[in-house]
Design goal:
This protein is α/β, with parallel strands linked by helices. It has 25 helices and 14 strands. The chain has an eight-stranded mixed sheet. A hairpin with a 2-residue loop joins β7 and β8. α10 packs across α22. The longest helix is centred in the first third of the chain and has 16 residues. The radius of gyration is 24 Å and the shape is globular.
Length: about 600
């Protein structure tokens, strides 16, 4: 099957736009790759320090036998249920490396915060920029420069993008991501959301709400909805950076350790019976690879966070993408999955239906993904259309993920849930923003109502509790962008807005903040750029202005005469709010990142 013309056209536009920066990146990569290996190149004292803490046999292998040495960068902590399984992974990796005549060292650890814990608290204002801290931590770990390859241990929201950004700055290294898998299904996401809405109305007390949440988030593994963490895993599969089919195998599955050992074999080029050298990550992640990730995101209705994160990832490989690229692809990429919040199924049901392998196979067969790409495997991206299992002799075997085992969850290209992707770009006199429409009812794709302007999510909650929002309303929550307060996710707004929508009111949210992959059924124009704190149009909106959000036409506008709008004064972020949002719980340390952050559409990068 030939590649779809729009996919080719978008890729060509990206390639042309990135020509200078990508060429410079590849030149730097080639220069580094041509050096002698670490223990031959570095001074004797450097090498001695590097191997001082490892067993004598490993020292002999690194220094005398010149065996490959794998750097492990881990995001392990047991605050994140998804990362708790990583505690035992380094020992498994080292054991497998030794069995193959190689060595492995934990090069470093990176921080990993749980957005579920910090949601709605000041700590959430550190979340977005924790991505850049993780990228820097990855760089610090790999800067020891003694490694012939890298294994990256991370799953969740900012962690995978941060690890990937950091790794791409060491693009000369073969690199494989090692996931840990989702927790088994507990209380369904739909039931959990109902309890949250009841709690927002005062119908359920704290104990009832806590019981529901504990039943939903009940053991190790990623949360089971298709938010940013699980979207990360889908995109890594589509980029060919995993062992194929490993994303959604649960932590307790008998295959999990075997897949982790396979990651070691993969990065060492020992996973194929034919000669194969795992390519450097900087060569794997090219324009086609980035487009494949974008396509996979759209085909699965994935997290809106990746319209920020993957822009930053691409820039780290010298590739420049923007929201127009996502929008053009969305026009031709069908929606193939219904996973909460786009449906009732969770990721375990998605995996049972065929998972990422089914989606990738369908997209490849339809010419909607580039088939001619490098991956970490000898068989290329086609290997990622398969699902793994254990044979009787405990060896890994792969078989086709097609056909779908449940078309209520995953459908073929010929009969998709929607003919177009789940994300839309909005333009208008309020700026540029995005909306996730895959979970929004069709009759809510166009909302026109008077605005109510809030300077914080707490103020919106107060107005809801006081009964002031019992009407058609577009809630504008400003001062939530990267430069203002670090662009927190605003999930706490979903229950009250859902309650209002459930009462029949026509409700929408417009904000320069984030809503992530759990944005749900209320229409939300998010990531509005330029943000209010940078003088963006949201700073002009007043209570009572009529706003039209039209996800069909792709517009977001305030219905005020042009001359009046042009002359209207731009509000300033109040000094008291800026000071309050910049202090406490470590927020002072992120002042430089807020000050230097690019726009959401430019990846909110703080290092460029």
């Amino acid at each position: 099957m030939s590649t779809h013309p729009t996919v080719l056209d978008v890729t060509d536009r990206i390639r042309e736009r990135s020509r200078g920066s990508r060429s410079a990146y590849l030149e730097r990569l080639a220069e580094i790759r041509n050096r002698d290996r670490g223990s031959d190149r570095m001074g004797c004292a450097n090498v001695a320090h590097a191997v001082a803490g490892i067993p004598a046999n490993d020292k002999f292998r690194v220094v005398t036998e010149r065996a490959p040495n794998i750097g492990i960068v881990t995001a392990y902590n047991d605050m994140l249920s998804a990362h708790a399984p990583y505690q035992s992974y380094p020992d498994i990796i080292k054991n497998e490396a030794r069995s193959l005549g190689a060595t492995a060292q934990v090069a470093g650890g990176v921080p990993a915060m749980c957005d579920g814990v910090t949601q709605g608290t000041p700590g959430m204002e550190l979340s977005l920029f924790s991505r850049d801290v993780i990228a820097m931590g990855t760089a610090v770990a790999l800067t020891h420069d003694m490694f012939d390859g890298a294994l990256l241990l991370g799953v969740c929201d900012k962690i995978v993008p941060g690890l990937l950004i950091g790794a791409l700055h060491f693009g000369h290294l073969p690199t494989v991501f090692v996931p840990a898998g989702p927790m088994p299904s507990g209380l369904s996401n739909g039931e959990k959301s109902k309890v949250r809405e009841q709690a927002a109305q005062g119908l359920v007390g704290r104990k009832g709400l806590l019981d529901a949440e504990m039943a939903a988030y009940h053991t190790v593994g990623t949360c089971t909805f298709y938010g940013t963490a699980n979207s990360n895993q889908m995109l890594l599969e589509a980029m060919g950076l995993h062992v194929p089919g490993t994303a959604f195998i649960q932590p307790g599955d008998a295959m999990r350790e075997t897949l982790t050992r396979e990651a070691v074999r993969t990065v060492l080029g020992r996973a194929s019976e034919t000669a194969f050298s795992c390519p450097p990550i900087g060569e794997v992640v090219d324009e086609r690879c980035i487009v494949n990730a974008m396509v996979a995101l759209l085909a699965t209705g994935g997290s809106t966070n990746h319209l920020i994160h993957w822009v930053a990832v691409a820039r780290s490989a010298g590739i420049v993408i923007d929201w127009d690229d996502f929008s053009r692809l969305s026009d031709v990429i069908p929606l193939l999955t219904r996973v909460y919040p786009n449906g009732s199924a969770d990721v375990n049901a998605f995996q049972a239906a065929g998972g990422p392998g089914f989606v990738i196979g369908e997209l490849l067969d339809a010419g909607l993904m580039h088939a001619d790409v490098l991956t970490v495997r000898a068989g290329g991206i086609r290997e990622f259309a398969n699902v793994p299992s254990l044979a009787d002799d405990k060896r890994l075997v792969w078989s086709s993920a097609a056909p779908s085992k449940d078309e209520a969850v995953a459908r073929p290209v010929e009969s998709p849930f929607s003919a177009t992707g789940g994300l839309k770009l909005l333009n208008g006199n309020l700026g540029r923003s995005v909306i996730k429409v895959s979970s929004v009812p069709d009759d809510r794709h166009v909302i026109e109502a008077p605005a109510r302007v809030f300077d914080s999510q707490a103020a919106l909650h107060q107005a809801f509790t006081a009964g002031e929002l019992e009407r058609d309303v577009v809630c504008v929550v400003r001062w939530q962008g990267p430069q203002a307060n670090g662009m927190p996710e605003l999930h706490k707004l979903t229950p009250p807005l859902s309650v209002l929508q459930g009462k029949g009111f026509r409700v929408a949210l417009v904000t320069d903040g984030r809503m992530s992959g759990a944005s749900g059924k209320v229409p939300a124009a998010i990531h509005v750029s330029p943000e209010a704190a940078a003088g963006g149009p949201l700073a002009k909106v007043r209570d009572g202005d009529v706003i039209r959000l039209d996800a069909v036409a792709g517009t977001l506008a305030v219905l005020v005469p042009d001359d009046e709008w042009a002359e209207r004064e731009i509000a300033n972020l109040p000094d008291a709010k800026r000071i309050a949002d910049g202090h406490g719980l470590g927020r002072e340390l992120f002042a430089g990142m807020r000050r230097n952050a690019l726009t959401a559409e430019e990846g909110a990068c703080s290092w460029l």
